[in-house]
């Protein structure tokens, strides 16, 4: 840290750790799950940076501390704020609205009030950590008001924002009663990054329709109080990736290889192991995937004694109604299919409602002949990239929904529309019975892409563009 603050500050809803305080007041922490954490952790460890975020527990007040080579700055949220800002506005309003209204978004004014208040608290915490002229990189839909609030406190900063989830088409976005405030909040940034080119164009279209600002290509011109141009904002795609080499290395270790073998043995050494790994979220298309798999068993096109589906559904947002309903549906479906096609000592579906560490994930990827990523909408989907990075044996087939950000990049995958159950059944069978030569060719192509476009490249490219942007005074 410099003498007056950090030169790079990341602001995200979550700290990269979950904290608990023991009775004696000592703080214990564990790495927390999720794609954002996986993506940003290596970036932060390489930089002299601070990470501002919520601890993951209610009412927990902890002083900033160092962990995993970074300064962690906890933001306290009360139980009511978790309910209204995190579970409510972030995950029951914005999440469904930004994911094609797969579930119905709820609009509540008291949730919006909490969202504003919490965004203000994050902006103040970031302002207190940043050195003069520092870069502050704000992450994701939970914090869309932070760029503007932060610029009001610290006009000297360069502010970046990255949206990890899709940005919806105007026709959906304009349902949001606070749509203008959200756009203005984001426009406090100098650079706004999205996963796909389509997300960036949706945003620019919303700016044109909901404000009087002029746009040209990726550039939006902001106006001062006198109506003259004051600065430029750029909105552009920066598809996120993973620490590909780390995953490749991990999957080559004797321990992970042995564990992969053990997993297959424990499954009864079936001919075909299929795998799904997702947070238990309605955007991930878990029901559609299980339905397709169940129909293949029913049609006799897959033999339940020779194939199995392992579905990791890690617990997520369990206090939100739509997630509780999804769990009921998925578990009912799994129970029906297992009741119908399971035998003593063999389940048609191995359903695991747990969260696993990276080495177990790598072993699962290695053990799977076919990886099923069938999201109805997904900002990127890092699981798809991790599967590819783990397969240094050039084996394995990836069935990938065209509604993921990953689909824009991963030529070589078997692309599917998860709403088309028949099409998905064909793709699953194609993956299961693919000619080994074709499989190798596809996997090599996938691996070239994932190993070259890794998370370091993602952050360097975003931070490179942000650092090269002219400072505000150029335009005044
Ligand atoms: O923090 P949670 O509410 O437990 O949720 C976990 C994370 O889920 C979302 O991930 C997104 O970011 C990934 C990385 O860019 C991307 O691959 C995926 O498609 C997105 O869904 C969310 O955006 C994060 O903020 C959450 O931490
Ligand atoms: O049991 C689990 C399930 C998932 N993950 C990790 O969580 C991330 C999921 O990211 P993705 O982009 O696929 O989806 P998200 O959950 O962020 O929407 C990946 O890095 C997975 O390896 C994990 O570590 N353990």
UniProtKB/TrEMBL annotation:
Gene Ontology CC entries for this record: cytosol
EC number: 2.4.1.15
Example of a GO MF term: trehalose-phosphatase activity
InterPro entries: Glyco_trans_20, Trehalose_OtsA
Catalyses which reaction(s): D-glucose 6-phosphate + UDP-alpha-D-glucose = alpha,alpha-trehalose 6-phosphate + UDP + H(+)
Residues annotated as signal peptide: none
UniProt enzyme class: transferase
Gene Ontology BP annotations: trehalose biosynthetic process
CDD domains named in the record: GT20_TPS
Pfam families: Glyco_transf_20
Keyword terms: Glycosyltransferase, Transferase
Pathway stated in the Swiss-Prot or TrEMBL entry: Glycan biosynthesis; trehalose biosynthesis
SUPFAM superfamilies: UDP-Glycosyltransferase/glycogen phosphorylase
Xref: Gene3D superfamilies: Glycogen Phosphorylase B
Function: Probably involved in the osmoprotection via the biosynthesis of trehalose. Catalyzes the transfer of glucose from UDP-alpha-D-glucose (UDP-Glc) to D-glucose 6-phosphate (Glc-6-P) to form trehalose-6-phosphate. Acts with retention of the anomeric configuration of the UDP-sugar donor.
Name used for this protein in its record: Trehalose-6-phosphate synthase
Native source organism of the sequence: Sanguibacter antarcticus
